[in-house]
Design goal:
The complex is a heterodimer of chains A (about 80) and B (about 400). With about 80 residues, chain A is mainly alpha-helical. Helix content of chain A is about 60%, strand content about 0%. Chain A is built from 5 helices and no strands. Chain B folds into 3 domains: about 100 residues, RNA polymerase II/Efflux pump adaptor protein, barrel-sandwich hybrid domain (OB fold (Dihydrolipoamide Acetyltransferase, E2P)); about 80 residues, Dihydrolipoamide Transferase (Irregular); about 200 residues, Chloramphenicol acetyltransferase-like domain (Chloramphenicol Acetyltransferase, 2-Layer Sandwich), CATH 3.30.559.10. The longest helix of chain B is centred in the middle third of the chain and has 20 residues. About 15% of the residues of chain B have low confidence. The chains are: A mainly alpha (about 80), B alpha+beta (about 400).
Chain lengths: ~80, ~400
């Protein structure tokens, strides 16, 4: 799976959480909660969905830091 | 033989549309099975069978809109417990039968008004046109008010309006600023959220009109609770992760066991303390509006059970698959603005409930720690209480116990 494939999957799940948001306009450093107006529960269910699809567990130590697309991508790339 | 009727999810709800049946005649259903989906002012809701049996007849067609109380299906149940059949069908009626007689919906009284008979269409129209049904004499059998009676009354009302207004407009058109201020009024509500907005407006107007609210607030240090969460979550995989709102919900349920007078309904000029602690929590919908499903008997459930239901309900709320029982059982409501934004929320009680708990965002603030100043994650909890039902003393004790609960997260 390429980096691009990963990003497609991540964005697919972000789109489910925030269907009306234009993800192409999303800056990789944007705080996702703020940029997409998703609350902690939506953020959580999104991360669970990503974790399940990619079969990658997201440990507690990492969870708190995964606030931006860039951080999520960096974590998934090292963890896969 | 039991009849399955269109349930009520709030007194403002007049009718709902059957979107689809998930069952067909001959199917065996168990109590709690999802048998169909309805479209209501609260969005798409799954309807659940309230008894075991075999579907013998589906009386309503998909796409059909029927009033609350209309028979939707007939369920053949072998058990000879015929006596309870109508009561078992509707969650609200069931509660009444159990002697709890209270129902978490606004303005129940209105619906029960026995004096005037009104067709559902006329009732809805009267609401839209703001016509008081008590002032109308119905032309139908037994004085039943029909659509045309409401129309006539509305026309009459229009005539009675002082003619001053249009005259004033003719003589002196309002300055541009004033016109600009009034213009958007007609355009505010997007159509899809319209009926939900109306339902919220009706419930909240009733609350502000009738409930003498009192507010108490308390800052709670969440340092221990959040550390405990972090340590607990380290031992769990992500799909078993606990989140702060789950702890808060459980803490509320536990505290209510000690202050039961906040958990119940104001009905017929008296406080009816509810038997079960069914904690409703607001879920904001992206398209606008909110829904408040309840976790039933939250005080008797473990944190993990609450976790599971919480996640499941949030997920289902997004997809429009909340269930009738979840939507009509809350005995108290929690509103939480999430992790960002406002630090406190002064909520409006959802009638006929008698209390609402508002959780603000958790923020790091200077805090007195062992005689020095430390920085702690602090949560401001605001309790809105119905002063007819309780006094500040009960509310204050509740907040104190809630704090204690959150200081001992391992015991939740």
């Amino acid at each position: 799976m390429t980096k691009n494939d990963l990003e497609v999957i991540v964005k697919k799940h972000l789109h489910r959480a925030a269907p009306e948001a234009d993800l192409d306009q999303l800056n990789p450093d944007d705080d996702l909660g703020r940029a997409l107006d998703i609350d902690s529960m939506d953020f959580y269910t999104t991360m669970v969905a990503i974790s399940e699809e990619l079969k990658i567990d997201i440990p507690e130590e990492e969870y708190g830091s995964l606030r931006t697309l860039k951080r999520i991508m960096a974590f998934l790339e090292t963890a896969r | 033989m039991g009849e399955f009727i269109m349930p009520s999810l709030g007194s403002q709800m007049i009718d709902a549309k059957l979107v689809q049946w998930y069952v067909k005649p001959g199917d065996t259903v168990k109590k709690g099975d999802i048998i169909g989906e309805i479209h209501t002012e609260k969005g798409l809701i799954d309807i659940e069978a309230l008894e075991d049996g075999i579907i013998s007849e589906l009386r309503i067609k998909e796409g059909e809109t029927v009033p609350v109380g209309a028979v939707m299906a007939v369920i053949d149940n072998d058990t000879a417990k015929k006596t309870e059949s109508p009561a078992e069908i509707s969650a609200d009626m069931k509660m009444k039968e159990n002697g709890k007689s209270e129902k978490p919906e606004p303005g129940l009284e209105k619906r029960e008004r026995p004096k005037v008979k009104v067709s559902p269409l006329a009732r809805r129209m009267a609401e839209d046109l703001q016509v008081d049904l008590n002032t109308i004499t119905g032309s139908g059998p037994g004085g039943t008010i029909h659509k045309k009676d409401v129309e006539a009354a509305a026309a009459e009302k229009q005539k009675e309006k002082p003619v001053k207004e249009p005259e004033a407009v003719e003589k002196a058109p309002p300055p541009v600023t004033e016109r600009e201020m009034t213009a958007p009024e007609k355009e505010i509500a997007p159509p899809e959220a319209d009926s939900m907005r109306k339902a919220i407006a009706a419930a909240m107007s009733l609350a502000n009109r009738e409930i003498p609210h009192y507010y108490l607030e308390k800052n709670i240090d969440l340092d221990r609770a959040l550390h405990w969460l972090e340590e607990t979550n380290k031992k769990r995989s992500i799909n078993e992760r606990l989140l702060p709102p789950m702890l808060m919900l459980k803490a509320v349920a536990n505290a209510l066991t000690e202050i039961p007078e906040l958990n119940g309904f104001w009905k017929d000029d008296a406080l009816r303390v509810a038997e079960g602690i069914h904690v409703g929590f607001t879920i904001f919908l992206r398209k606008g509006g909110l829904v408040i499903p309840a976790i039933l008997n939250a005080d008797t459930k473990s944190l993990d059970e609450i976790r599971e239901e919480f996640v499941e309900m949030v997920t289902r709320a997004r997809e429009g698959h909340l269930r009738t029982r979840e939507m009509s059982s809350a005995t108290i409501t929690i509103t939480s603005l999430g992790e960002r934004g406002a630090e406190k929320v002064y909520g409006v009680i959802y009638p006929p409930q008698v209390a609402l708990i508002g959780f603000g965002s958790i923020t790091r603030r200077p805090w007195s720690v062992n005689g020095a100043i430390g920085i702690r994650p602090v949560l401001t909890v605001v309790l809105a209480g119905d002063h007819r039902a309780t006094d500040g003393h009960s509310g204050s004790r509740f907040l104190e116990i809630l704090d204690e609960q959150l200081q001992n997260p391992d015991k939740l």
